[in-house]
Amino acid sequence: MQFHLFNKQDNSNHKKRIKMKIGVTGATGQLGRMVVDKLKEKVSANSVVALVRNPEKAAGMGVEVRSFDYNQSENLALSLQGIDKLLLISSNEIGQRAKQHANIIHAAKQAGVQWIVYTSLLHADKSTLSLAGEHLATEEALKESGIPYTLLRNGWYTENYTASIAGALAAGAFVGSAGDGKISSAPRMDFAEAAAIVLTSEGHAGKVYELAGDQYYTLKDLAAEISKQTGKELPYQNLPESEYARILKSIGLPETFALAIAGWDVSASHDDLFDNSGQLSALLGRSTTPLSQVVADALAAK
Ligand code: NAP
């Protein structure tokens, strides 16, 4: 991997001038957009390629856009021509992902991609989360491909919980099935910045990063933080898994998704969303964004 750095004395342009092309899958998704923005801060925009299912959604991203539907395996290798480094952001089509990711890895091999960075799941090899199986299958496919790779085993996004603040305030309680489980989440932006750092620096091939927030909290702590910031008393109500799933279904979630979310909370109750290794802040070179800040941002966005 060859990087051509500007002279450090030259403050007129602090971006790395790299000859390599960095492809980002899922670039029109919430995480993907943040990664592209972070990459543009670090390297010139013409080094970045957004690989997207719907090119019209990528208007205004300011980087090259290529069509890239994971289900159209016959077209993927062509879209990866000239891509040296690939950030494979896991698909959101649960149940289809192992196959979709295998399609991408196969195409990357055909196209001569030199390095794949994959967004996996925190402690994917031990986690009881129902999501772990597809991530492990992808990790295995990467190993078998022979392409150098790096695993970013991302922890829970704090936004997964702050998205429920408005509903919880309306209902008068924050409900869940996570008990006293310790949750070391971080906002998407922290994971995006870490991905951009890994993609634009050396020494990450072959590494597995367990990425999580510096501070852990329980859902009771989260409810207390919301109470503190809003001035409204919001208790945390812990529910049996089936009752929590029933409530999620009653507010309009498809049954399979409601059951899945309740099950993930049960995994959280076993500390499957906990990690205190500090690897995310070590990559970032700063502390991860605290829960209080993400709650404040969510309340300000209401
Ligand atoms: P997101 O906003 O739902 O974005 C998912 C991206 O995947 C979208 O850009 C979507 O394309 C793309 N995609 C889905 N199916 C595709 C296909 N067949 N071909 C091409 N692209 C396809 O998710 P996110 O918040 O950015 O998170 C990124 C990933 O992390 C998710 O996909 C999921 O695997 C995982 N995740 C992690 C957590 C966590 O807490 N760590 C939470 C949720 C999800 P379109 O833009 O065209 O829809």
- Please tally the helical runs, counting DSSP H or I stretches of 4 or more residues: 12
Q: Encode the helix/strand succession as letters.
A: EEEHEEHEHEHEHHEHEHEHHHH
Straight-line distance between termini: 44 Å
**Nearest-angstrom radius of gyration?**
20 Å
Number of strands: 11
Global mean pLDDT: 94
Major β-sheet profile: 7 strands, parallel
Poorly predicted runs are 1-12
Oligomerization = single chain
Q: How much of the polypeptide forms β-strand, as a percent range?
A: 5-15%
Arrangement of strands in the largest sheet: 5-4-3-6-7-8-10
**Which structural class is indicated by helix and strand composition?**
alpha/beta
List of distinct ligands in this structure: NADP nicotinamide-adenine-dinucleotide phosphate
**Overall helicity:** 40-55%
What is the molecular shape?
Answer: globular
Question: Could you characterize what this model shows?
Answer:
- By secondary structure, this protein is α/β, with parallel strands linked by helices.
- It is 41% helix and 15% strand.
- It is built from twelve helices and eleven strands.
- It has a seven-stranded parallel beta sheet, with helices on both faces. The protein has a two-stranded antiparallel sheet with strand order 1-2.
- The N terminus is likely disordered.
- It binds NADP nicotinamide-adenine-dinucleotide phosphate.
- The site of NADP nicotinamide-adenine-dinucleotide phosphate (NAP) has 24 residues, from α1.
